[in-house]
Design a protein that fits this description.
This protein is an alpha/beta fold and about 140 residues long. It contains six helices and four strands; from the N terminus they run H-H-E-H-E-E-H-H-H-E. It has helices at about 5, 10-25, 45-55, 80-85, 95-105, 110-125; strands spanning about 30-35, 65-70, 75-80, 145. Helix 2 (about 10-25) packs parallel to helix 6. It is globular, with a radius of gyration of 14 Å.
Length: about 140
């Protein structure tokens, strides 16, 4: 079994998906989680590649958010699309990243992702509030590389 399969149980994955759904009920932002075992690239660089591979740059408001986890290398990144980055402060993701990393250090991977996703949704709400005509543009399922 690979490290990515051991990283989260199926039940934990479903709790993360439910956190994504709950967050997206407050914002038009689109949140995804991507988990892979290893990458030679720095986490932010690889996260940007994955962001485009998942077509997260094609949302209407360019307000996608990716939580990227590289399990074997113990790397994590969170990135947002142009629509978010154009209007928020440069340190916008720092508090969310700190929540995730603090939990990861305690080997509380599911808790870290859930808390980070909920925090991201709460932060995005003021910039990208949920609209009655909002549609779920991206899958809420965890992707793997």
């Amino acid at each position: 079994m690979s490290k990515t399969e051991d990283f989260l149980t199926k039940e934990e994955e479903q709790e993360i998906v439910q956190a994504i759904i709950a967050s997206e009920n407050n914002t038009s932002g689109e949140i995804r989680v991507h988990i892979e075992e290893h990458s030679e690239k720095p986490p932010l660089e690889r996260a940007q590649e994955v962001f485009f591979e998942l077509k997260m740059d094609e949302t209407h408001d360019r307000n996608g958010v990716l939580f990227y986890v590289c399990v074997a290398d113990k790397k994590f990144a969170i990135i947002g699309d142009k629509g978010i980055n154009d209007i928020v402060a440069a340190d916008f993701w720092n508090t969310t990243k700190e929540v995730v990393i603090a939990n990861f250090k305690e080997k509380q991977f599911k808790k870290g992702l859930v808390e980070g996703i909920l925090k991201a949704g709460e932060q995005l709400k003021s910039y990208f509030p949920y609209q009655s005509n909002d549609e779920d543009e991206l899958s809420n399922e965890i992707s793997r590389g």
